[in-house]
Prior knowledge:
Elements: H1 9-16, E1 22-25, H2 32-45, E2 53-57, H3 60-74, E3 82-85, H4 86-97, E4 108-109, H5 112-125, H6 135-147, H7 152-157, H8 159-164, H9 173-186, E5 189-190, H10 192-205, H11 207-216, E6 219-222, H12 230-240, E7 246-250, H13 265-273, E8 278-280, H14 290-300, E9 321-326, H15 329-347, E10 354-358, H16 364-373, E11 378-380, H17 390-403, H18 408-414, H19 424-437, H20 441-446, H21 448-452, H22 454-476, H23 479-489, H24 492-497, H25 502-523, H26 532-544, E12 556-560, E13 569-574, H27 591-605, E14 608-617, E15 619-622, E16 625-628, H28 633-637, E17 643-647, H29 657-667, E18 700-703, E19 707-717, E20 720-727, E21 731-736, E22 743-744
Parallel strand pairs: 1-7, 1-8, 2-3, 2-6, 4-5, 6-7, 9-14, 9-17, 10-12, 10-13, 11-12, 13-14
Antiparallel strand pairs: 15-16, 18-19, 18-22, 19-20, 20-21
Amino acid sequence: MDHLSLLNESQRAAVLHTEGPAMIIAGAGSGKTRVLTYRIAHLISQGVDPFNILALTFTNKAAKEMRHRIEKVIGNEAKNIWMGTFHSVFSRILRSEAEKIGYPKSFTIYDTDDSKTLIRNIVKEMNLDDKLYKPNVVLGRISSAKNKLISVKQYLNDAVIQADDDAAMRPKIGKIYETYQNRCFRAGAMDFDDLLFNTNVLFKDHPDALNKYQNIFKFVMVDEYQDTNYSQYLITRKLAAQNRNIVVVGDDAQSIYAFRGADIQNILNFERDYPELQVFKLEQNYRSTKNIVHAANSVIKNNQAQLRKDVFTDNEQGPLIEVIKANSDNEEGKLVATTIFEEKMGNHFSYDDFAILYRTNAQSRAMEEALRRMNIKYKIIGGLSFYQRKEIKDLIAYLRLTVNPNDEQALRRIINYPKRGIGETTEQKIFVIANDTNHAVWEVVMNAGEFLGNRVGTAIEKFSIMIRDFARIAENSDAFEVAKHVAKHSGLVDDLYQDKTVEGLARYENIQELLNGIKEYVDDPEKEDKSLSAFLQDIALITDADTKADDDGEFVTLMTIHSAKGLEFKNVFIVGMEENLFPSQMMLNSRADLEEERRLFYVAITRAEKRLYLTYATSRYQWGNLRACEKSRFLDEIDPKYINFKYGDGGASGGNVLDRVLQRKSNLVAPAPRMQVASNYTPPADFKASDTSSLAAGMKVEHPKFGFGTVTKMDTQGNSTKAIINFEEVGEKTLLLSFAKLKIHA
Ligand SMILES: Nc1ncnc2c1ncn2[C@@H]1O[C@H](COP(=O)(O)OP(=O)(O)OP(=O)(O)O)[C@@H](O)[C@H]1O
Ligand SMILES: [Mg+2]
């Protein structure tokens, strides 16, 4: 058999095991997924009907890849294998069985947004505090109940379950759960968790249906078994109960979804459920160099709760792991982008050979900016590009409206967010009135009382007053001051801050990250115009230059470590190797959490085939302030003999934060050519700015960067005064007096 020769002895033994339960718990890159793939191909080549094979993967992408590879071995028949994620396979089954459990055949699947909107409505109808019963929080509770197969009835009747769920804090969750389920049912809809929950209901209440699928799925296989939840575990156990032909593969060292209900316990349950179980050991890693494999081993050794595994490789020693220290998150991005560029050019890699992995989505900003500046195409997997995220667009919409109240798209986006009682009908009316009476939309908004009557009119006018206040502040402040003020006083930050779920926190962090970006912008000595409109223009250009996600051609892959599971890349960068970032601050409270975090690091390291880079910054903007950062404890856990240390431009010296700030400023590259000024002027060492309160047209001035010039016009609006100056070398410039350093000569 041709394809069997492409396997080592243990892999082949596992593939040839075609009857009875088997488990492969083995290290990363040892060929677990390959064994499943070849086992399926082998079964089919032995005459097994592909329709009798069920293979469950963690992502649709993984399923597609597996099918593709099987196709290469056995041809078109591969199309008939039941293969996909739990959700995709069982929603397909429910399509034909839904009527048995009271749902229409053509039931709808609610996505997360639908679910949240529904919950929001229910909370409103029940007159509950929507700050306490945030849709995210409530949905999280309902989801976790469903994944443990806790029905509404059980939830409502079981004090222990309620106590576990901290019901004292939110006593109405059970009631919301009930109404939510009733509404979904009435609407003929299932949410994501229902797909698994209802499959369990189907198999429990309808033995005939269970029996039918037990007969269809004569062979059941599960990849990434360590990350299944209870609901998924039970489905596979039931399906395999008759034939007992079930093979699961996984790696306890890569279990990283406990926070979503995944349970390593399922591995132990598996051993208990099938005493006749055959266990196969795979110890040889085929993916990575010796240095990478040894480094990964030295890290995971620090976990107490770990099955001992000896992973080795016959691959080349490979280069040492590069640890790169940067002075700031921006420099970190720059170093990563430059390294990618140089490696690609020097070693003939394609951009496809590079992946940048991070702990939290917010970290993509600095990376994205650096890659764009170097014109390197990239693609973000499983997560929106930073500027496409809803919360970022919301804040930017406020800023746009602040700068230009006629910006109708921005207005539509935020007129009722956060909620201020301006309904959709009213919003429509504003636009209709503007059209009918030939007024600017913003004029209608400002005079809404007159146009729309008192009650709703007042709400709209209040909104317009707020925006005008922002505009007034924008006249005298730099972009960061305004943005900070707007984030706070628009109610946006408050709204996000109320939401304490992981997702909610991420959104809050994203807003902070945008503010950090603006702060860096105004702190940048190269940016002469610090105003909000200048900033908005700057990022609008960045967004325009965005590389399209589904562009043809090669691109660097950016993603969180969580979404990198099972994948491999020739060159991997793990960025943000800092305390409180990775390990995450939220995971430092217990050994169990820290060990999950360490498994995540293990997953990240083991994605790399040839080269691994670990980067960290000694300072990072957080909450609008430049903070000193400490390198991650995980770096110290790697045996130093596998590491080569490298430093960013000015990093070697150490010193205090102030030193580093100064250093980092002097190291900044000129960000965009159009910001550069062709002036040969060098300011005298004793340059001292004058008091400009009496500056007037006709006066001669000196500027530390633009040199000598003559004031042609003064322009005062509110408290903000601008001077239009004709400089001898660089031409006309408009400078905000509160920022410009000018020495008056006449
Ligand atoms: N016997 C072999 N000969 C050659 N290459 C192999 C062999 N076994 C596995 N590989 C290759 O090694 C790499 C890792 O294999 P695979 O992805 O199946 O590992 P895995 O155990 O599933 O890893 P992970 O734990 O990350 O999911 C793949 O590129 C695979 O093709
Ligand atoms: Mg795998």
